[in-house]
């Protein structure tokens, strides 16, 4: 199609502001799906996505729209993941577009993710159309939302489109705005092929499916292509577009968006942000912005039953087929046996993987506390990267430790600022900016150690703000910090899987809180159990779990036998997620106690 009649756009929004609902409405209005065909929210394909109501993977849909001027346009809607963990994927999806709809809930106004996403779009040079959604709600305030868009985001809001994605009111105006306000793609079909990969996944029937935006040149069936980041060559077997049903076509040309299936066996070969070119007529360079994805959050995964270890490995391998952004390698722990060290893009990503392992593969897992990767310069000048506390080097050989730092944007109402400031101080934050964007809304910008965020930051923020604070963050650098390894001893024995890395200045307090929490979590045994926190050989805190005095079963003697059975079953159920370490049964929650000490 003539690029003049193509519009590629994304929808960006804060979580729950109505992105999926609006996508569905656009599909319905362009006749891509009839209302009956449309099971609610087709773009969120995976079960988990639907359940959690967030978009994890980016997809794209081609719609045909005949505008009021009588001209038919090809509109490619590129869906973006809705969470900070996936911000690189968001940025590559945005790089595939010329424009974006910035959806803002008229009853909530601009939130942290609205801003973060808007900045990503602006940095990618996109034209932005603000969409003010949920105007059917009695609490909708269109003038105030416009004002916030102008003040906080810095975008003119005079052409903002007020809509209700739910009722469909005003949505036809969005389609007209897309056609008239967004620029058309600028590439050249006769130049060598350069296509940007913005999503890929493994399909059990068709193999690896790649979504790409053709920036220059053409892509066609039978073409020999080369992936420019790794030089690998494949043959295109099929290509097509999602309408959202897949429809095969013969070729894709500059400006268009579609999927292709090639002789690719491994989804890890198709990196998001990579450039696809013609192997016989290669482009001179890659498209800008490519980065290798790096894990940010690390944890150990073990099965409760050590016989299930190979099942866990098989499950991790299967999940990796579909998600090349998480990594795992075997590790072993004196306490937990054989398991895997896993790296994730962020906390949500970690939760998703864990949930899928348990749900789809029916595994009972013990997870160790999540942590980050430190860069350690040794006194001999060598440099180590350590993400596993059990590999922490001896303090005497450490010269300097660098920890990853994020810049966080927090939006909240004035009344919660006090509580939030206290929290970010406690979490070692440094203030970068404090701004009133309306007389009652505040935007805080802080630098914070990622290590503090992966602990309980998000839950604490929610509780101090009663849910009225939104957070977005991205990695911005490192600080040199005096981090120390804190060991936990159970009955005098250090349990390697319980060790954590903490800042020296908060180590004493954290140690105290941690052993206190563990005392609550470790059930009473037949004997007394001492729980201690230690830094090196120095014990910094201690608590004791007292012994059980009475035999619980004894209570039921002479009583009803079914009651006794129930009690035993209940105990067994409780045991499921316990790991026996030495003579002590430690439940899963105790391994994650550090997440609960705030
Ligand atoms: P994520 O995928 O989690 O980022 O959320 P989203 O931005 O896609 O939001 P979604 O479309 O799932 O909408 C969130 C909630 O708002 C749902 O309960 C919708 O039914 C509701 N909603 C969306 N648009 C409207 C609207 O125009 N009016 C009203 N009243 N509710 C809406």
UniProtKB/TrEMBL annotation:
The keyword Iron does not apply. Its main location: membrane. Residues 4-186 form the Tr-type G domain. This is Elongation factor 4. Keywords: Cell membrane, Elongation factor, GTP-binding, Hydrolase, Membrane, Nucleotide-binding, Protein biosynthesis. It is found in: Cell membrane. Pfam families: EFG_C, GTP_EFTU, LepA_C. It comes from the Bacteria. It catalyses: GTP + H2O = GDP + phosphate + H(+). Belongs to the TRAFAC class translation factor GTPase superfamily. Classic translation factor GTPase family. LepA subfamily. Belongs to the GTP-binding elongation factor family. LepA subfamily. One of its GO terms (biological process) is positive regulation of translation. InterPro entries: EF-4, EFG_III/V, EFG_V-like, LepA_C_sf, LepA_CTD, LepA_IV, P-loop_NTPase, Small_GTP-bd. The keyword Transmembrane helix does not apply. Its EC number is 3.6.5.n1. GO terms for cellular component: plasma membrane. The lineage of its organism: Bacteria, Pseudomonadati, Acidobacteriota, Terriglobia, Terriglobales. GO terms for molecular function: GTP binding; GTPase activity; ribosome binding; translation elongation factor activity. Required for accurate and efficient protein synthesis under certain stress conditions. May act as a fidelity factor of the translation reaction, by catalyzing a one-codon backward translocation of tRNAs on improperly translocated ribosomes. Back-translocation proceeds from a post-translocation (POST) complex to a pre-translocation (PRE) complex, thus giving elongation factor G a second chance to translocate the tRNAs correctly. Binds to ribosomes in a GTP-dependent manner. It is a peripheral membrane protein. It is an enzyme of class 3 (hydrolase). Gene3D superfamilies: 3.30.70.240, Elongation factor 4, C-terminal domain, Elongation Factor G (Translational Gtpase), domain 3, P-loop containing nucleotide triphosphate hydrolases, Translation factors. GTP binds at residues 16-21, 133-136. CDD domains: EF4_II, EF4_III, LepA, lepA_C.
């Amino acid at each position: 199609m003539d690029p003049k009649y193509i519009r590629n756009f994304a929808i960006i929004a804060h979580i729950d502001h109505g992105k999926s609902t609006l996508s569905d409405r656009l599909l319905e209005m362009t006749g891509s799906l009839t209302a009956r065909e449309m099971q609610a929210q087709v773009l969120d394909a995976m079960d988990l996505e639907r359940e959690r109501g967030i978009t994890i993977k980016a997809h794209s849909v081609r719609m045909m729209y005949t505008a009021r001027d009588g001209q038919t346009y090809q509109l490619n809607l590129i869906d973006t993941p809705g969470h900070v963990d996936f911000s690189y994927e968001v940025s590559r999806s945005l790089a595939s577009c010329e424009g974006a709809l910035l959806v803002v809930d008229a009853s909530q106004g601009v939130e942290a993710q609205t801003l973060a996403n808007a900045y990503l779009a602006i940095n990618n040079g996109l034209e932005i159309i603000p969409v003010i959604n949920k105007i059917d709600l009695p609490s909708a305030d269109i003038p105030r939302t416009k004002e916030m868009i102008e003040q906080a985001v810095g975008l003119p809001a005079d052409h903002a489109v007020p809509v209700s994605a739910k009722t469909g009111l005003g949505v036809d105006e969005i389609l007209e705005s897309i056609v008239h306000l967004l620029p058309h793609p600028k590439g050249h079909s006769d130049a060598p092929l350069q296509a940007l990969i913005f999503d890929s996944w493994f399909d059990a029937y068709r193999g690896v499916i790649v979504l790409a935006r053709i920036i220059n040149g053409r892509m066609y069936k039978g073409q020999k292509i080369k992936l420019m980041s790794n030089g690998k060559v494949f043959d295109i077997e099929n290509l097509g577009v999602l309408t959202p049903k897949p429809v095969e076509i013969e070729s894709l040309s500059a400006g268009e968006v579609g999927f292709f299936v090639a002789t690719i066996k491994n989804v890890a070969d198709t990196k998001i942000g990579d450039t696809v070119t013609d192997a016989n007529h290669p482009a001179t360079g890659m498209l800008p912005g490519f980065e290798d994805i790096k894990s940010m959050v690390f944890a150990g995964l073990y099965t409760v039953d050590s016989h299930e270890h190979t099942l866990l490995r098989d499950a991790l391998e299967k999940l990796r087929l579909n998600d090349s952004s998480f990594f795992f390698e075997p590790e072993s722990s004196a306490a937990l046996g054989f398991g895997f060290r896993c790296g994730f893009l962020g906390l949500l990503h970690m939760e998703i993987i864990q949930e899928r392992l348990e749900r789809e593969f029916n595994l009972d897992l013990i997870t160790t506390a999540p942590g980050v990767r430190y860069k350690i310069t040794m006194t001999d000048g060598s440099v180590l990267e350590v993400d596993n506390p059990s590999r922490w080097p001896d303090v005497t050989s450490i010269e300097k430790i660098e920890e990853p730092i994020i810049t966080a944007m927090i939006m909240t109402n004035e009344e919660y600022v006090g509580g939030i400031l206290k929290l970010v101080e406690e979490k070692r934050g440094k203030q970068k900016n404090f701004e009133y964007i309306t007389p009652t809304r505040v935007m805080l910008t802080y630098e914070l150690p990622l290590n503090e965020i992966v602990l309980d930051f998000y839950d604490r923020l929610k509780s101090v703000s009663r849910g009225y604070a939104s957070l977005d963050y991205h990695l911005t650098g490192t600080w040199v910090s005096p981090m120390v390894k804190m060991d936990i001893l159970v009955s005098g024995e250090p349990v390697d899987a319980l060790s954590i890395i903490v800042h020296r200045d908060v180590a004493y307090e954290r140690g105290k809180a941690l052993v206190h929490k563990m005392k609550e979590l470790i059930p009473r045994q037949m004997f007394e159990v001492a729980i201690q926190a230690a830094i090196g050989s120095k014990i910094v805190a201690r608590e004791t779990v007292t012994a059980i005095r009475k035999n619980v079963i004894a209570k039921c003697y002479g009583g009803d036998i079914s009651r006794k059975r129930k009690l035993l079953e209940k105990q067994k159920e409780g045991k499921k997620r316990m790991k026996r370490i030495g003579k002590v049964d430690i439940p899963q929650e105790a391994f994650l106690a550090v997440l609960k000490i705030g």
